[in-house]
User: What shape does this take?
Amino acid sequence: MFDHRAEAEKLVSQMTLEEKVSQMLHGAPAVERLNIPSYNWWNEALHGIARSGVATMFPQAIGLAATFDPELLERVAGVISDEGRAKYHAYQEEGDHDIFKGLTYWSPNINIFRDPRWGRGHETYGEDPYLTAILGVAFINGLQGPDENQLKTAACAKHFAVHSGPEGERHEFNAVVSPYDLWNTYLPAFEAAVTEAKVEAVMGAYNRTNGEPCCGSKTLLQDILRDKWGFTGHVTSDCWAIKDFHEHHKVTATPVESVAMAVRNGCDLNCGNLFGYCLAAVREGKLTEAEIDRAVTNLFVTRMKLGLLGAPENKKYTSIPYDVLDCDKHRAFNLEVARESLVLLKNDGALPLKTNGMKTIAVIGPNADSRIALEGNYQGTASDHVTVLQGVRGYAAEKGIRVLYAEGCPLFKVNDSVLSQFQNDRLAEALIAARRADAVVLALGLDRNLEGEEGDTGNQFASGDKLGLKLPGSQQMMAEKVLAIAKERGIPSVAVILSGSALDLRWADEGANAVVQAFYPGSQGGRAFGELLFGKFSPSGRLPLTFYQSDGDLPDFRDYSMENRTYRYFKGSALYPFGFGLGYEPFELSDASYAESAVTATVTNKGRKRATETVQVYIEIEGEKENWNLCGVSKVVLNAGESTCVTVPIDSAAFMRYDDEGDLRLCYGKKYLHVGFCQPDKRSVSLKGSAPARLEVSG
Assistant: This one.
């Protein structure tokens, strides 16, 4: 069996110090005398191969999370890694070793989406540690493949750790967090990525955590990651994060001190160029050459596991043909995923649309015909995009229904034209369309230009974060006027929100007949929405985050305490709670019981058509800080009238909490499992129409 570490150590032993240091930069040059080709470590695969041309563009990560389906995410990542392998080998044939063309993917982002104002939250799997962990593990498994010694691609869990804004302050921000919140909220998904999925890489965050810069934190990188969890892969910095040590965090005085702190504490790879100072750090005695050797060895082990640097290749991976990229099979699967990501938040019976006698549908809004709103950030280039407008138009045509389109308003500006003499110069067209239609679809929300990463967005106000939960610009005003016309005329109205985060949707909840949260649904998202609108399938997405009533529900953005944050600690009543989502067919759960570390229950589709429901299990422990925690999920697909017995495994960790040392301890309060299709809170039960079963667990 090929010994990757021994071979890596042998190769490193033949290198000069200058050659070794050169390999610690993300753009590692060739060392021709040792047959080491150049390699660029920086690549992205958040929801498809990004930034290097054509690839399947799945729903953004937050939309993937709304599926509540780890098996589906592993399949998604399997498609992504197939396409990544095909791209890599084709680029190699052309001698192209550039950025975004390697096999090391800086995905997934498993930070906790603790506050809906954070601009990068749509890159994550939401606000819950358990859901984030099981989805992150599944995604990593799909990227890396079944053999940890012969990787398909290398995944990277980021950003380690305690990182979720504010974006504009990330280079100097100190996230202060209690030991309880650190271990019980911010770290579990990373622990699962390391210990369960054997993730090959971990990326440090920009910020400090409790005073230590994350990319040079002994606590995070050495004490926890390597010593406690046994991580053996490599650690990379976030991009140009090392210079923040001396320029912004002020924990070091010079670049040499910064790189010494990073490498000494376990950072092996520098996204950026500052690790060039490692030469000076060794010469000045701030680093040893043995510490450089350790870092480069870790990096070479990864390249060898991928079948590079003389290691044996896996023919299954090297022979994947280039024509798999966004092929018909992958596009059909992408549509399947998009269907499962859509969340129906309200439906008073208007959906599916009743098309008998319907002649015209008005599709209105700045996101109606927006390709950007399908994609989210860290996106590639799909060979085919179907917007909401195109999706509705395609299915309407089957019924002989005409579609009228009006932008209604720009996404965040007041006027479309600087020459307009009056405000809201697109409003009249929206009202005209609404007065002439038999149904109205409002496509509103955000896009990656308004919420995203600092430096990547056009949001000059908050560096990619949101200042509040209101729709930007004139969207809500326009929507309310259109909904008033729909109500006056007695025609159905549907609001579809394309955004990567929770918004204040009280206006839609009060004024629209139906509300759909589409997140950023991928290149086939418009087609999936069209199918939902016309009843081609029953929606099954569930919210991976809380939709609050308003900004007033939110604690201070800079406060990293979990008190009154997310469904686990929130003391108020949400507009749309975590885990909530409606379908077209009613389901019933009965005969729930717990034994031998599993919940069993009978689930029945009481409807008229095949549909999907998600069994959710929450653990409530008296005397603990949490309201309750999600601890089990199971997707159930049933034909009309069909029943099945569902078994949901419950890990023993569900009955425990981490102590200040990061060790799990059994909780002694009374324990209850809530088994159903939503949380056990009053708002969820009211919206869903049925309460979960409550089981007392002894011990």
